[in-house]
Design a protein that fits this description.
With 570 residues, the chain is mainly alpha-helical. Helix content is 70%, strand content 4%. It contains 25 helices and six strands. It is globular, with a radius of gyration of 26 Å.
Amino acid sequence: MFVSLLIIFTASLVIIALFHRLRLPPVLGYLCVGLIVGPTSFDWVNDSDALPLLAELGVVFLLFSLGLEFSLSKMIALRQVVFGLGSLQVLISGAVLGALLMMFGVTTPAACLLGAGLALSSTAIVSKELGSLGEIFSSHGQNAIGVLLFQDVVAVLLLTLVPVFAGTSDQAWYWALPLTLGKTVVLFVGLSLASRWLLPRLFHEVATSRSAELFVLLALVIVLLTAVLTHLLGLSPALGAFLAGMLLGESHYRHQIEADIRPFRDILLGLFFVSIGMLIDLRLFASHGLLILGLTLGLLAIKGCVVALLVKWRGSDSETAWRSGLALAQGGEFCFALMSQMQQNQLMPADLGGLLLAATFCSMVVTPSLLRAAPRIAARLHRKPNEETRLEEISALNAQVQSHVVICGYGRVGQSIGRMLLNAQQPYIALDNDPVRIEEAAVGESNIHYGDSHRGDLLVAVGLERASLLVIAVDKTDIALLILKEARRINPSVPILVRTRDDSQGPELKEAGATEVVPELLESSLMLASHALVLLGFPEQRVRDRVDQIRHDRYRLLHGFYAGAEDEEL
């Protein structure tokens, strides 16, 4: 086991570093590691009973972290998505896929089970990618998370139904269904009571001890204990971990808990994706490559269209519908476990199982790229019904504005810039994709608009061609780069000021067309240093000249940093 972990971690170190340079998602890197070290490739890692258990813990930690982001009130607000959209998605997708399987000769019981299994999506990949893209609380993100939660319950039910359909269980399906739902309710009530009466007192006692070690241990115990209790109830450990995280999401210790478990989550989740990659037989791609490609595209198209139509039917706009469909179009990790059990119970032939496993794997591999390309794909597939009208309204409101400043991102930094401009009587127009922030800001300001700043038509609507300055104040450099490239396409001559966390991607932003790149960490350090010099009695003009020189030299004097024990985020 130790040798296997050493091989996996070493291969992951090399592959993830390469993928980072190529700006590809780490998830794809871990899947490729599984393919490389697996039994059908170099066969460096032997089968181990401990590896799947460690891999499953990665999903448990991921769902616990995701639960911390959701409060109970938010989950209650999502109940229609979880039980309404989630149940319809599983039923309709499962029925369509099951009917297709029966057309290809699969028996009716196996087709029903397998169709429902293929209807499930990847909780691990979708949750991780939506989180990294900052889209968890977007409309399509909440649709995806709500459906995935319902699918976790369905996955447990499907696994319990395999022996029933195989004739090796005494329990009928109409007893298994209410029993699973009843266990879920019992688990939720029990965790609610614990999170209200027991856990706050435990965290308070540990916090007063001021021991970081005790706090980490308590966080780990909560995650693992929740997973064990859920497993004993016959439910998905990941579902229980999500519920526990959600109930702790409103505590004062939420951010500390999330920071403590992040290292364990990332490493174990990497093992999970490696284990998925090891299940795939590479020889099938050589012998049945075109068939696997067709199955993959068919699975993506059927599930994506079903979800998109359901979301549209529920009253959402077309962009949200298509982006929800793209997020849930892939197969899921539970499908691997389901097909494995079905093969063991002789409910499906091994050759069909191998092809479907390969197609499911391929659909999971392309998911990170689909999520990143979702805005462009959704815009091409369909435009919002009211989008043209909204863009026309924005254009009409700003038609007379000249020599203004466009601010992309109206968070704390964007609002500070806006207030300074307002104080200087400089007109500006701000864009932000947070509907709550826009709703609050629009009460007192009419020059704030909702939308994705990297959309060219929206930048045109706010008059970027006539602007005297563009300020990109978003907190994600990848998004800033997209906005920068689109802005340069629309107006090659406008000065563009880009805010970044540090200067690690400064050259890339300058190459893409940024006039100035302001790394806020270095700039804040420079301001503190200048104040210190003034307080020490140095002449203000001399300090000001020195600051200007450092900025002119692109902060070269401030480069170089001795990292400490508490500098993980830097």
